[in-house]
Amino acid sequence: MASAEEVAKAAERRDVRDRWLLSAPALLVILLAATGPLLIVLVYSFLTPGAYGDVKWQFSPDAWISVFMERDIFDDTLSVAVAHVTIFWRSIKLAVVTTLATLALGFPTAYFMATRSEKTRDLWLFLITIPFWTNLLIRTFAVLQIIRNEGIINTILLKLGIISAPIQILYTDTAILIGMAYVYLPLMVLPIYASMEKLDFRLVEAGYDLYATRFKVLRKIIFPLVKPGVIAGSILVFIPALGAYVTPVVLGGGKNMMLSNLIELQFGQGRNWPLGSALSITVMVIVMLALLAYVRNAGRSGVRHG
Amino acid sequence: MPDKPDRNAIEVVNVSKIFGSGEGQVAALDKVSVSIRENEFFTLLGPSGCGKTTLLRLIAGFDFPTAGEILLYGQDIAPLPPFKRPVNTVFQSYALFPHMTVADNIGFGLEMLGKPKGEIKARVAEMLKLVKMEALAGRRTAQISGGQQQRVALARALAPQPKVLLLDEPLSALDYKLRKEMQIELKRLQHETGITFIFVTHDQEEALTMSDRIAVMSSGKILQVGSPWDIYDKPAERFVADFIGETNFLTAAISGVENGKARATLKSGATIEATVAEGFQPKDNATVVVRPEHAKLTKDKGDVSGTVENIVYFGTDTHIHVQLDSGDTFTVRQQNTRSAGCGFERGDKVGILIGNDAAQVLRD
Amino acid sequence: MASNFSIKHQPGFTAIAATCFVVLYLPIIVLVAYAFNAASSTSEWGGFSLRWFQSAYQNTQVIDATLRSFQIGAIAAVLSTIFATMAALATTRTAPYPGLTFKYAAINQPLMVPEIVTGVALLIFFSRIKIFTGYSGLGYLIAAHTAFCIPFAYLPIRARLENMDLTLERAAADLYATPWKTFRRITLPLLWPGILAGLMLAFVISLDDVVITEFVKSGGQDTLPTYMLGQIRRGVTPEINAISTAFLLLSVAIVTLFFFVSRKRD
After folding, report:
1. Residue A298 belongs to what domain range?
2. Of A206, B241, C120, C142, whose CB is crowded by the most CB atoms within 10 A?
């Protein structure tokens, strides 16, 4: 008979093997229908565009060059591609502002929820969860009906005589901003709330006991302790905001392009799949940088409590 | 004590358990050997982290030893998975299945063994009666009290009639009164079923009151195995003497070892009789232990002398802390009477009498 | 200062929170209200009517897209939940082992990449396979949905597993249950609420997807959201409000169910 030691080693090996077998289907599906194709995008970004879409299997760095530069048709000189840079700038700007706006609204909301009694807390959580799981397209559509010229905001303002003509919000950057802040707000509230719920309010009491003002308590005690939630929420809002597709299509009306629309264009009318691929990779790199910053930040402010 | 047959139910032979690897290696058990007799209430006693629970887990099969053998009636069970060992466990958290009724919990082991339905039913009924839980057979385990959960856990582990029952600090979650009740209940169950019990606890009082024999453990080693009386009155090592009850330590020169007795000359110059372990060699610098209740305080000259430093009233008795002239401290426990005080005051010059059968010489 | 000093009070926070909740629900309420509008345009109120629900119900394209959404959602939810359950069992309640971090990263990878990038990647990859195999059925959409649903299904299942008391399974093994029997009789019944929650979450996520579906679908494979997007792009009729309202109702029902299932403790 094998010794206990050998049996233990064999059991451990079997356990690791079983764990690989169990996770194989999930890993395989994700590899085939999510991660793997990303590598093909990388390859495509170095190929030559085909005449009717797709690619020709011929190496070319052109796609990467034209992410930020454009070649003059007459003298072949390179200059900065103003259109692309503008779209990059607008996307990043809108994503950052959206993140800040949702933070400014979401932090007090999460605080409010976490300071309710245990029974009603579940109700507030439920109220935040419903929009969270409601179709993003429907919610964007709902915003559209509010802010358009015949929408409720303009109608009320007109009726009250505050304005004489409808304010044009729809199909502007402001519309995209309002829409994104609206749809991504729950994504900010939920992780902050999760951190806040674990907050030990005796620490707040101790703060007041030691002569802190309300603002000092907020800044020196509450905020540092819920910072992991704030960072998580910011990442959860920033990533989809940067790659937002539905909101600019519905509220930007196709005039105010964001990165996703630019990418889509290359696979549609633009018929430049390599450029679309290069742009996609660029978006991913920005996202990865944001995630990296998050991981490093979360690692440093690794406050554990509760 | 009832007669026990001398057959060993469990023999633990040179068992080591090492966790981690390389620099971070920790030996939870270090070449432990111990024999547990059939039909015995055997207790593994020690502070947390001493390895007692690890040893229990190795016997149960939740972990495998790094080296050594664990014999169950002569057969090495160390390599067997838990479901192939005729050994059952009562868990510290009870680990009752929350999605099953009390009766289903108790019948689970028998069901897994593939026993016929009729037999399971009869055995479950018998077990429910044994732990006095007949009325609650259909309840979910979340709907019964902690004490009742404890009984169900016991019945569940006893139902398959294991050769050995392992109990991992099963009483620690109960309040004081219930714990006392369950201590008696456990003794009764062990007596009625005739199953060998291996009981793990860090509570010395629990160990002393319940066990036939106790193994005192510390840092992965068994320091002493013996009856409660042995362990309390004849501690072999400083740790055992210190961990169980209260003890005074005195330095003495040992001479005239004969028949387990020896003469101990204390620093004060007085000589008393002390018991020694077998094979003890005379030496100049040995430690002698004296339990507080085995010494007597006197206003005359005693075997050692000192000054009363503190008097602590405990209800049943009074502890008098004495600063000895040699510099050590010594505690004497004195039974209280209703009418009089203890008869001493702080600052009194006192002598301490150590009887002839009061001192034990440590091995170290 | 007031005699009752509340340590939890922060000036203005309650007002902001109240605004947030109003703002979150107001557009949805307006959207639902206009679904019952009798007028042909969403600019005016023409009285209460169910005509747009009726018109949506009689629109074969809507019904078609709805059925397709349900079909893809159901299959993707079931598949992703099964795979996520297996993966959760493989990645919880263990000492770290080689490859564990890789598995975490891989399973959560679809969450880390913007949908547009995944959409583009799948468009390229699947168009190659389409040329290679000639197959252009719903399989591509189902595969894509299954993949991005896995991390969502994985979440509640893993949470449930990690909160589960390992001693229960140990107790079963102690009582002669083989590993398989322990799984069937102890682990699975206790894990069930987590699995159910994962299933519902996956279904909702699949049902909601616009971007990836938009890129992966072949002609005539519109799901309800991509159909709606097409309609919204073209101009708005109250019919979209009616469809949205029905959709909303379904989401709320599933979320409510999810909420109770995932909070159930025993």
Report:
1. 71-305
2. C120
